[in-house]
Every structure is written in structure tokens, then in C-alpha cells.
């Protein structure tokens, strides 16, 4: 089982959390495997995936010795957090501030990524003990908003989730974010014909763009 420090190091090293939010559990498994082949080391399987915890159990077993952190997203409360940890999740992600989720993550040595949008929410999230602050939603935010938010709160390890692409990832890191969450740009890359090698290539391209942005 990965230690908390291992997971945080994986986020820091790659600068990327892959958000897998798909309607079919078999597609979610195939996409996760293909993305790992492309270099992804931190996965977030959202609770909206049918049978999400079964997907997490499978991936946690498969990648147990490979340094890949498998997490669960849309964790709304402490009960959901405990179930995710029991399934093998080493990363818990919420769209909002859930003190119960953060407590469960701390109790079981998982990384907590807690959602916030305003300065007040970011500070409350930090005070609650979250390891990383998920900037959400990002449809109404952008790199300029992140930069403004981090000016008085540089201690926040901000992770924007959604709307991040190879085309704008450099702007996000220039704004000072710690890492980024990416979803459909990678996870739906195989949709035209079901060729999962497209997911592998999209993952590798995105990670290369992150590495370039951070350099």
C-alpha cells in the first residue's frame, strides 16, 4: 500500500491527477490502464462511475507495486471516504469542504483534495487540514483567477480541476498552481474508434506539456 508521502510525491512529480468520469466501468478500467501506460501516476475514479469502488479495487490490485496512486472523486462525506479507503483508495477528492472526508483521510493515511472556490473557502479548507485544495468549479475561473487567489494565499497547494488542456496548462502553472486535474482531454481520446492507444498518447502528450510548463 502506498504511503501518504508516496502519493503526494507522485502528484508533485507529475503535476497531474487524471479524473476518470465515465459512464461504463469497463471503459473506465481500460482508460485508466491506457493512461498509466502513458505515464499517469495519479488516478481519480469518480463515484459517478457505475461500480466505482469495484474499479478502484481492481486498479489498486493491478498497480500495487507500480507506484500508481488510485483515488476516488466526488467523496461527499465521511462514510463515502471510509468506503473508498476500504476499496484501496489512497487519494480522496471532494468538490466541497467536507471535514468528515478530511478526517477520514487523515485517520487512514490517504491524501485529501478538498474543493474550494473563494478565498474564504480556501482558508476554511486549509484550516480543516486538507493536503491539497481543489479549485472548483473552473468553468467560471481561469489562470488569472488562480493567480489572484494565490497572491494573498501562496501557502495553498491549488489544483484546478476541469478545463485544463495542453493548450492552456502553461498558463495555469505560470499562475502558481501546484498541479492540475485533467479529464476528458485524455479519458475520451479513444471515443472515435475505441482505440485505447489514443488515450496512452494523449496522456503522454499532456504530461509532456505539464513538464514543459513547469520547466
Notes on the structure:
The protein has 215 residues and is of the alpha/beta class. It is globular. Strand 3, helix 4 and strand 4 (91-94) form a beta-alpha-beta unit. It has an eight-stranded parallel beta sheet, with helices on both faces. The mean pLDDT is 97. It has ten helices and eight strands. The chain has helices at 4-14, 25-37, 52-62, 78-86, 99-107, 119-128, 143-150, 169-174, 184-187, 197-214; strands at 16-20, 42-46, 69-73, 91-94, 111-116, 132-135, 158-160, 180-182.
* Spatial shape: globular
Class by helix and strand content? alpha/beta
Helix content: 40-55%
Report the radius of gyration as a whole number of Å.
16 Å
How many DSSP helices? 10
* Proportion of beta-strand residues: 15-25%
Quick overview of this protein structure:
With 215 residues, the protein is α/β, with parallel strands linked by helices. It is built from 10 helices and 8 strands.
